[in-house]
């Protein structure tokens, strides 16, 4: 099965060639009438929903969809410490994971470590494998942006956290996997899906 997940605040748009299992309540989108610009306008302020667009060629459909918009590359980390706790940040009223845009000419892995260290005031001791890639759509200066974030597993010793206030991060916290339900109550669908990939 080929599939893309695009996140717009609390809305998820899934582009796939086969209906994924375990979705719960979802709405199917008609491929023939679909216009991403119109969909985005409704989705950005709408209630939480899962929308599925079935198509023979998800990759081509997705490439065509994002062609008209600016694409920004970002990288972030899921950091585990030596006490098997995970690093979360609190930004703009929701729990999140540290991430940020690549600087010009910067490699994805280097950007991921840099962003985690800058946003949380820690030193990463080990960069692990790539965990996943996500697509998040939002507006910046009136322009619709597709942000592609590459997420990596990371390790760090348990150390004091210093949230990067100038980036709107008001808290950084080490949390055990047993606290994931607490995080999921006040986070984005994108972060919930990243968390669900962790082997705890």
Give, in order, the helices and strands: EEEHEHEEEEHEEEHH
Radius of gyration: 17 Å
CATH architecture of the largest domain: Alpha-Beta Complex
Helix proportion range: 10-25%
Classify the fold: give the CATH topology of the largest domain: Nucleoside Triphosphate Pyrophosphohydrolase
User: What is the makeup of the main sheet?
Assistant: 8 strands, mixed
Please count the beta strands (DSSP E, at least 2 residues each).
Answer: 11
The CATH superfamily of the largest domain bears the name: Nucleoside Triphosphate Pyrophosphohydrolase
Uncertain segments: none
CATH class of the largest domain: Alpha Beta
Describe the structure.
It is an enzyme of class 3 (hydrolase). Belongs to the Nudix hydrolase family. It is a single chain. By secondary structure, the chain is of the alpha/beta class. The chain has two domains: 3-66, no CATH class; 70-196, Alpha-Beta Complex (Nucleoside Triphosphate Pyrophosphohydrolase), CATH 3.90.79.10. It is 22% helix and 42% strand. The protein contains five helices and eleven strands. The protein has helices at residues 36-43, 58-66, 108-120, 180-184, 189-196, and strands spanning 3-8, 11-16, 27-29, 49-54, 70-81, 85-91, 94-96, 99-101, 126-140, 143-156, 169-176. Strands 3-4-2-1-9-10-5-8 form an eight-stranded mixed β-sheet, with helices on both faces. A three-stranded antiparallel β-sheet has the order 7-6-11. The protein starts with a strand and ends with a helix. The mean pLDDT is 94.
